[in-house]
Design brief:
Structural class: alpha+beta
Number of domains: 1
Strand order of the largest sheet: 1-2-8-7-6-5-4-3
Distance between the termini: 16 Å
Oligomer: single chain
Shape: globular
Number of strands: 8
Strand content: 35-45%
CATH superfamily: START domain
CATH topology: Alpha-D-Glucose-1,6-Bisphosphate, Chain A, domain 4
CATH class: Alpha Beta
CATH architecture: 2-Layer Sandwich
């Protein structure tokens, strides 16, 4: 498994601010795509160690204009962390573009855009993940750290499937 990453952006109001993470995963592209788009796979890797994402709380209408949502329970207090957004682009099994809405206020116009590009490398897949939007540099650093952990869990999960 190989990982590279970068961060970009100027000031907090710059909508081009964001980051990119590239991973080489030991799994075929079709399986990696399913891990992103099917609740029975997504439940196993999305989140931090110690968190749970019950499959019953995951909804995925994987088509342009379709919505997705998930409810994570984190820490010993089982703090509820809602996630939701829309699919902007779906090209199976190579590309997903989806939004992440403000979890406490779905009407907040400041959404994050996440792009997942999967390149077939035979028995491996290159996954390039980009996130951009309106977060501050500090917030992007935290989100990037969390996503790096998520993608480590994804790699571990795919190795077991």
């Amino acid at each position: 498994m190989t990982e590279t990453s970068s961060t970009q952006g100027a000031d907090a109001g710059d909508a081009s601010r964001g980051f990119t993470i590239t991973r080489i995963l030991d799994a075929p592209r079709e399986l990696v795509f399913k891990a992103w788009t099917e609740p029975e796979h997504f439940t196993h890797w999305f989140g931090l160690p110690g968190s749970t994402l019950p499959v019953a709380t995951i909804s995925m209408d994987v088509r342009p204009g379709g919505t997705w949502s998930a409810l994570m329970f984190d820490g010993p207090e089982r703090t509820e962390l809602p996630f939701a957004g829309k699919y902007l682009e779906v090209v199976e099994p190579e590309r997903l573009v989806l939004t992440l809405a403000h979890p406490g206020d779905p009407t907040n116009p400041n959404v994050e855009v996440m792009t997942v590009v999967l390149t077939d490398l035979g028995d491996k897949t290159e996954m390039v993940f980009q996130q951009s939007g309106h977060l501050s540099e500090e917030e992007y650093a935290q989100v990037k750290e969390g996503n790096t952990i998520f993608f480590g869990r994804l790699a571990d999960y795919l190795a077991q499937v």
